[in-house]
DNA sequence: CTTGACCTTCCCCTGACTGGAACCCTCATA
DNA sequence: TATGAGGGTTCCAGTCAGGGGAAGGTCAAG
């Protein structure tokens, strides 16, 4: 398969696939004309990466996960720990964003949103209370 | 004030303050020795920026917000609209992260987390069902 | 033979900083 | 007077995960 084929079948842009080769996540062969030549196993890896990235794992996490996936003698505890640490980070981000949302919601609610200049949003940002 | 003073009083690292000058958000004067020389109004702006960034506004949003803050004839509707657009983005991010959290939570729950290799997390990532 | 779709490498760009090197300024102390 | 600590300055490079686009090679169809 050429890169366009694996791109459409894996759901990843060709640019991203080249980048993943660059950083050593996949190692496709080359045809005589210099084109990358992807095996089914490469496609499988790319789909794996696509799903892991969609779950928010970093590239380095993905590298580790692929290593665990290919290691027949892995312990599921190692995978679970990685996933739990990632989950904790996601929950931290959610909490941060929710705090922003709550503050912003209050400010927006208090703002008339008309043609007058008086605005509690700017008042808050400027430190007035 | 020197940069160290405004850094501790505004809550922003000195590096960040230099960066904000670089991109034109603030324009401190210079002393004879070449040091940046900050007025109270600069400190006020930096604190404004610090709070706006903490609410997740982008630098470009902050630039707009500062402009509105300094424009005595602004309409609060303009501020409100910016804030509402930002709120919508935050809510989108929260929804994305919650979806990740939920999926990840299910996978983690199903993983024994012991020394055996069998792992539903890897199974899911690899596309098996 | 040409056209258009595909592929290649290469380099720069993103946001919002952060780290570090190399150097300058000021003040207190030995 | 030398020196050392603790400010400050500029500039360069790196972060993360790719995206955009240029310049050029390859291939199948008409």
Structure description:
The structure is a homodimer of 129-residue chains. Chain A has 129 residues and is mostly helical. Chain A folds into two domains: 1-58, Multidrug-efflux Transporter Regulator, Chain: A, Domain 2; 75-129. Helix content of chain A is 65%, strand content 3%. Chain A has helices at 3-10, 14-22, 40-54, 59-70, 76-109, 120-125; strands at residues 29-30, 36-37. In chain A, strands 1-2 form a two-stranded antiparallel ribbon. In chain A, strand 1 (29-30) and strand 2 (36-37) form a beta hairpin. The model of chain A has no long low-confidence stretch (mean pLDDT 97). The interface between A and B is large, with 53 and 53 residues. Chain A binds a DNA duplex (30 and 30 nucleotides) through helix 2.
> How many structural domains can be distinguished in the coordinates of chain A?
2
Q: Which CATH top level class of the largest domain in chain A fits?
A: Mainly Alpha
- Overall body shape of chain A: elongated
Oligomer: homodimer
Task: Profile the largest sheet of chain A.
Answer: 2 strands, antiparallel
Total number of helices of chain A: 6
Architecture per CATH nomenclature, i.e. the level-2 architecture of the largest domain in chain A: Orthogonal Bundle
Q: Rg of chain A from C-alpha positions?
A: 23 Å
Strand order of the largest sheet of chain A: 1-2
- Distance, first to last CA of chain A: 64 Å
Q: In the CATH scheme, what's the topology name of the largest domain in chain A? A: Multidrug-efflux Transporter Regulator, Chain: A, Domain 2
**Percent of residues in beta strands of chain A:** under 5%
Show the largest interface: A-B, 53 and 53 residues
What is the N-to-C succession of helices and strands of chain A? HHEEHHHH
Beta-strand segment tally of chain A:
2
Helix content of chain A: 55-70%
- Which structural class is indicated by helix and strand composition of chain A? mainly alpha
Which regions of chain A contain 5 or more consecutive residues with pLDDT less than 50? none
């Amino acid at each position: 398969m050429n890169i366009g084929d694996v791109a459409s079948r894996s759901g990843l842009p060709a640019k991203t696939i080249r980048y993943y080769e660059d950083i050593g996540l996949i190692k496709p062969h080359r045809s005589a004309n210099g084109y990358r030549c992807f095996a089914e196993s490469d496609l499988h890896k790319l789909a794996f990466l696509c799903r892991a990235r969609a779950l928010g794992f970093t590239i380095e996490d993905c590298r580790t996960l692929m290593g665990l996936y290919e290691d027949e003698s892995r312990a599921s505890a190692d995978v679970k720990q990685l996933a739990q640490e990632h989950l904790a980070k996601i929950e931290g981000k959610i909490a941060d964003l929710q705090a922003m949302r709550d503050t912003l919601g209050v400010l927006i609610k208090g703002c008339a949103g008309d043609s007058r200049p008086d605005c509690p949003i700017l008042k808050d940002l400027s430190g007035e209370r």
